Amino acid sequence: MENPILVEVLRGSQIESRHRGALAVSDPDGKLVLALGDVEGRVFPRSAVKGLQAIPLVESGIADRLGLTEAELALACASHSGEPVHVAAAAAMLGKAGRDSGCLECGSHWPLNEAAAHSLAAGGGTPSALHNNCSGKHAGFICLSCGLGADPKRYVQPDHIVQREVTAALESLVGMTLADDVRAIDGCSIPTYAVPLAALAHAFARFATGEGLAPKRAAAARRLRAAVAAHPHMVAGTGRFDTAVMEVLRERAFTKTGAEGVFCAALPQSRLGVAIKCEDGAGRAAEAVMAAVLKRFVTLSGEDEERLAPRLAPRLKNWNGLEVGRVRVTPVLTAPDCR
Description:
Structural class: alpha+beta
Order of helices and strands: EEEEHHHHHHHHEEEHHHHEEEHHEEH
Number of strands: 12
Strand content: 15-25%
Helix content: 40-55%
CATH topology: Beta-lactamase
Distance between the termini: 15 Å
């Protein structure tokens, strides 16, 4: 099946680029209320499932035993920008487990936030694993390992108890076995599993509502959603889509970007889960589709729409600040009866 064009990028009045993709919106029973493109095709959800991967940390009671704060739980779900508040929270999580940054196995990179990267460089610093956008998730994994009484060394390997617990939680949400033949290695070195887009949307509908989950797992999902809603800056950072959207919508939407044009969301108010994959891996296209989905399925006030306008109707500017184009979703996505 050929995926439809979901997003167009205009320069002036002319279409300069087009992005094809697939979109699935599911209810907790697995019924698709919206399906565009190849929703049965498998995709690697990458960082979009960090909230789901944090469930064992909360469900096990280890987060409470270690005294993790709600801001730290939000960071466990994050692809953060490496700003000082993110780095400090990741270090604090490790400290509560009696560990330090030397235990992190996610690798190092410069902060995603330009100002934070410039500040670090200007001070003669170099990036550490704490600056990695996945350090909060990895700090959570180390907390889980220590709480289970296991040596955290090699916690990124599929046979480590941490990844066995995380994979089991993912399987319960997507409703299928995640076998070795669909496993690959994520950017931060943990296992990532290719799953059908429709199953991914179903997982996020369960994450949004708790339906189909055991009571403790549903409670853990609810707590993680609340933590992110209370601390949206921790899950992304300054100027980032997820933070900007959740600062407005709070508990009405849990959105999470992934690499290579993947984007997912849990919409508790609407009882829906969303999964997006843009064929060419373009993040700007995935954001445009997610914004359109939020506008369609989340009740927005006039003030909400005004605050979200830069995301709902992105404008392109050049280095002189001149508006040169815009990003728009196509009618295939906005038609009232699209399925």
